[in-house]
Amino acid sequence: MGFLLVFFPEEDQNQTQNKPNNFNLFSIKRTNSFNLIHRAQSTISICLLLVFTTLLLFTLSTLPRNLRQFPSSSSSPSNLSHALQGMGTLYRRGTRAMNDVVVAHAHDSLSLNELKLFLRLFFRSSLASKSDLLLIFPSKTPKLNNLILQEHDSFFKLLTRTSFDVTHFTKMGKKERESGEPIWGQKTRTNYSGPESNRLSYGSVVGFDVDELDSENSLSGFVDHVPMSLRRWACYPMLLGRVRRNFKHVMLVDVKDILLLGDPLGRVATSQSSPSKHGKRNSDKTESTRKNPVHPGIVMGGSRGVRRLSNAMLTDIVRASIQHKKKKNSVTESGIFNQLIGNDYALKNVNLIVSTESLPELSSLGGSGSKSGSHLFTRNYGLIKRGNSNLDVVNSMMMKHICSFPIDAAVYSDCFL
């Protein structure tokens, strides 16, 4: 009896071959689905990004144009640059070229709190909107740089407050609007596109080391120890000579002794607009200054006249030092300055302030405590004298009064101390 054996080898082989094909087909379908989902997510993300960007640009384009616009302020000492021909330190570059300049000198004994009060009051004054501030230090230190930058940043924060009155910093005439860029630092482009009535105006802030302006210490051969009160006169010829074509009016001020609140240089510009009274005014002024002592800590006048006075003062310092060479501590700034004011040629186009009439002391302005601070701001004082007694108390009183205003308390960090 035989056997019947039937084999189907081809069918088994086809089944084994179809299994991997089915698996490959499933893998391909799964990969395609993943790619489609990924592409869909990417497309949705791009669409959302485009929609967000469009909404942002639309919102920015519809904002009102009358908002206050400010340049960015660098609050890092590492970003400081030279101010003029490789000299000086530029703490703030102003919005335009100014006609007036305030040259303030600091004594060796000047404290950080005294400098802080001077800067805080100056930045708020109308004088800061139309003049540059040049500071002359015996030596610049990181603490001084940080303090100046902090006060500068606080001033900008004040400007951004809607409750702060910026009238002094926006009121400009046609000549001011058409003035060029400041001479300090590198030229920059301003992207202000708002109305001219809202354009801000404030001056530059520059600091110089005394060795930059008087590298040889020219008075050291005539005076054993040259104080800052005398050496500053040796710095003016170079400084004022380099900027003689850039400024019409100059103020020389003592940071330690004088506080600037308003615009005392404004009356100098106003008086110079009446040339017919120029000769008589100088004559009367000379007679009054011969009878009353003149404070050497504040000098205002035309640029050429102040340069002439500073050169004459430097010459008289050398002459007085030679005459009193055998005597010690016989040369004083106040003595030489009051002798110099009798020279009519040196006083030409220079406005000297008689201290007994025009320099009220802070301690005598309406009592003690915060009350005198309130009198200080309610009256139109252009400048005041700190006084020689209780300087720490006076500075503390002024700081407390400034911090009593909510807008100032929110800006100045030392108001919380």
The percent range for strand residues is 5-15%
How far is the first residue's CA from the last residue's CA? 119 Å
Choose one word for the global shape: elongated
CATH class assignment of the domain at 2-8 and 80-168 and 200-271 and 292-410? Alpha Beta
Secondary-structure element series: HEEEHEHHHEHHEEHHEHHHEHHEHH
Radius of gyration: 35 Å
The tally of helices reads 16
Q: What is the CATH topology of the domain at 2-8 and 80-168 and 200-271 and 292-410?
A: Spore Coat Polysaccharide Biosynthesis Protein SpsA, Chain A
How many beta strands in the DSSP annotation?
10
Q: Structural class, from secondary structure content?
A: alpha/beta
CATH architecture descriptor name of the domain at 2-8 and 80-168 and 200-271 and 292-410 = Alpha-Beta Complex
Characterize the main sheet.
Answer: 8 strands, mixed
Q: Give helix % range.
A: 40-55%
Q: Output mean pLDDT.
A: 76
Largest sheet strand order: 1-2-5-4-3-6-8-9
Low-confidence stretches: 1-19, 63-69, 273-283, 366-374
Region (Disordered): 177-196, 268-301
Domain DUF7780: 81-358
Pfam family, one: DUF7780
Biased composition (Polar residues): 187-196
Describe the structure in your own words:
The structure is a single chain. With 417 residues, the protein is α/β, with parallel strands linked by helices. The protein has a domain at 2-8 and 80-168 and 200-271 and 292-410: Spore Coat Polysaccharide Biosynthesis Protein SpsA, Chain A (Alpha-Beta Complex). 47% of the residues lie in helices and 13% in strands. The chain is built from 16 helices and ten strands. An eight-stranded mixed sheet has the order 1-2-5-4-3-6-8-9, sandwiched between helices. Strands 7-10 form a two-stranded antiparallel ribbon. Helix 2 links the parallel strand 3 (100-105) and strand 4. Helix 2 packs parallel to helix 3, helix 10 crosses helix 11 and helix 14 (370-378) crosses helix 15 (391-403). It is elongated. It starts with 8 loop residues before the first helix and ends in an 8-residue tail after the last helix. Residues 1-19, 63-69, 273-283 and 366-374 have low confidence and may be disordered.
